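User: Assemble these into one structure.

Assistant: Restating your components, then the assembled model:
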Amino acid sequence: MSVLARVRGRLPWGETRLLALLSVALVLGAPLRTMYHLIDVVGSPTVFLVVTVVSLAAAAVLARVLRPILAIAVGAVLFGAGLVWYVTNLSTDPAVSALLRDTLALLSGRRLLQIANVRLWVISFAPAPVFLTTYFALRRWYVTATLAAGTALGFFVLTTDAGVVTTLLGVVGAFATIGFGTLDTLDDGERRTAERNAAGPGTSTDDEGIDSGRRGVLEQLAAIIVLPAILSRLPSVAGTSLSFADEEQPTVEGSIVDADESMTVQGDITLSPTVRYTVESEEARYWRVAAYDRYTGDGWVRTGNDSPYDGTRLAGPPGDSRTVRQSFEAESDIGTVPAAWKPVRYNGDPAVELTTHEGFQPVGDVAAGDSYQVVSEVPVATPRQLREAGTEYPDVVTRRYLQLPESTPDRVGETTATLTQNAQNPYETALVVERWLQNNREYSLEVERPERNVADRFLHAMDRGYCVYFATTMVTMLRTQGVPARMAVGYTPGEQVDENRWVVRGLDSHAWVEAFFPGHGWVQFDPTPSDPREAAEQARIEEARGDGVESVDTGETGNGSEFTQTETPTPPPLTEDNETTTTETPEPTNTTNETTTPFGGPQGDSGGEGSSGLTVPDLPSREETALGLVALLGTAAGLRRAGVTERVSRAIWLRHQRRTDPETDVERAFQRAMYVLQDEHRPREAGETVRTYLDAVDADADVRHLATLRERLRYGGTVSEVAADEAVEIADSVVSNR
Amino acid sequence: MTDTDTTRGQQSDSALRDATGVATQVIENVEEVIVGHHDEIEHIVTAMLGRGHILLEDVPGVGKTMLARSVAASFDGEFKRVQFTPDLLPTDVTGVNVFNQKTQEFEFRRGPIFGNVVLGDEINRAPPKTQSALLEAMEEGQVSVDGTTHSVPQPFTVIATQNTVEQNKAYDLPMAELDRFMTKLHLGYPDEGEETAMLGEVVGHHPIEELKPVATLSDLQAARDTVADVSVEEPIRAYATRLARYTREHAELGVSPRGSISLLRAAQARAVLNNREYVVPDDVQQEAPVVLPHRIRTDSSEQTAADLVTAALNTVDVE
């Protein structure tokens, strides 16, 4: 406390100003935090931090000397310079129109993380708002400061890069800044007036005003935070945009396949039994919808822009491949056009674009009944070929597919290295990781979503999850070992209803892994244990049938089908091999034995650390803590104003008298009794002595005696332990008898 | 003022009992003669115990003099009476130096002021110079005659009466001199029953002739000492101060610090009368209406000083 006081004494600012500046820090912190997160996902944040600190320092210094109009000019120059620097440093040379279109896309909800060079972008964008906000805050132009930081935050809100909590924190900071700032300006104005008039006393009432003003600001802040939270619990509001709480559990499909250009790893999830497509194909494949390259720690983002598809045949995979023709018919309205990897030709009703991962993406929606044909070239590299593929990755691939957030704990890499120490090449590494995850993590749709790095948590703390967790973790693990990998989403083959015909339901949606092998391209791996997954899917189908959901079946599916025995199709071999599938069987022999051994010890057999029962529950994040604190303070201020605290403490005060010294005891006993009398009759009036009052309310003898005891103490200066005992006893009985 | 720290606890219960006894006996004794006016008698006794002087103001014939005489007669001390008239000289009050032919020296012949209880009848009929002779004795406990000062006997109490009927022919006491009286009382007419009872008693043999002293001077002196030892704690002193300040804020001329001192002394005596060795706010409230009003000049004719004191008592926080 003394340290605090000393620090406080050294600060040249008044309390209100301090509060206002802290609020500015909060509102500026929101966009900065968002930018930090963006930087963190793609690399080291050092440069960003340096740039921020330099801007802060420059603003602090210039705030004393620079005139506001010049500061705005400096801010504009910073912004412009950043823009120019960004454009000139881009590796590609985009047209101005493309840049403009990108900007518009950003403003309409496209995530900044999808920008290829987000690091460059953030570093060039950061200085201007930091400088302007700090400068104006120090000059007491709080509204302008809020405007500068708020614009930055608003931009990130539009790009949906700022999380809900971060945004709320920023908004709270903005309100706090304006509230406290106004008070500070008033305060300052008054002080100056006072100094000018050399007026002495008489500021106490103003201080009170300021103080109650502060409390008012706090109350409003609490209202901002608490009210929506309460509202969202009201049945009439729940589920609307006001609601924080996502009451409805997302489906696997909704969270991965329908996710547009970015997806967030969800917690608990359900399976949708609705039929999506009917596929006619020469063979069962994973029907791939999309892939993601940028891992954010809690989700995935696809960077880059879609390009138009003109209907020509695309290049197939670099190595050997086999042509697979598929024909899809959408059974419900949907927004994706799945196809087996790697599609080379598309022909159908819905117009499509080409994603940066060479997948097809419909421009609009796909309506039920729409159909399309896809020709795919399925890679057919043998395990030997893959084993010998080497590590000569092209730059384009390493630049994009080895990215990991800077905040990824080192232990992810360390664990993976231990696991794969016997792997001789990337292919073996991938197999080991795939097999290990299949064997050591259970499949479950009920997952508590981890707060931080999903892969790290799944690898080190959790013992169960669903495909997204498995795939995310495997990609992360591969990337730590320098194996380019990406997250693929789509559908498993579905229910086979005829020799070349499959019915794909929402619950068949799936996430898996693609690893890159030079000379062969992207090869699929699936770390999710297939049996429990299929069991869960089958159980869901039957449940839905039992509930009489019509969309579960087409005319072909169900009991009458001759292919019922393959309702839960075995996933096709990931690396299909013309020669023989048996090569896979001996493959793990040299690895499986070793894979489990290093993990018998530190990891625990299958449960991992998480199952030991010692896991600490996830603490609330820093932002949530800060918000909670503000809410708490404001609530306290509100309760105080409403007199609740006073009433509560009064009730406690009335009922429990702790004995101290006789004087205090007698006085307090008397006050307690008087309080009860006041409650029962009327308060003692001004100018009314205790005796007169007691006469007026016709108090009983005990109370009169108590009054005499107290009178003796107060006016006669005599008191004794006995008197104190007596007094407390009387007060107790008065309180309990009322 | 009482030093509460040193005297607290030293006061013996018997001293308090004695003092209360003296006061009660005197009051009962006076009530043998005076019908009604119980409160006023109490006020007179508390003023005497509080080392103060009393001014009785009213229309003639309501028993001012009789009351004063009864009080005086209840003590065995020397009782003197001065009838103030417009031609009364100061020396008629204080006494005069007379040349003694035998001794060939001036010797001081003591005036009526040298008594333990001095009744000054109708003091507002005497010229100011004469009045001030009385007032000097009241304030200083001494008189100066031809440059020589002579102490009056102790205990010394002046009970003065004042007529309110012949205002224009009277020399009204200035505020500064009124201030010297601890209490100023109005007797008022007795109510119907009391008056009838009084008439029954006084026709024929007036009871005052049979009134016997019930207390000695030393009793009175001891009671005064006891009163002086009554403790007045800080809350009471603060209350008195608040009352005084209230009157100053709401009147042209408010209660002076001397007024506050008088109030607390009267309250001390009141405490003794109630057999208590400490002052409570009730004591202050009982004495304030007779101790304060004659020290106040209100700024409007609608509000009397008494009204203002009532307002003060109703408004000022006891604590």
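The longest helix of chain A spans residues 164-197.
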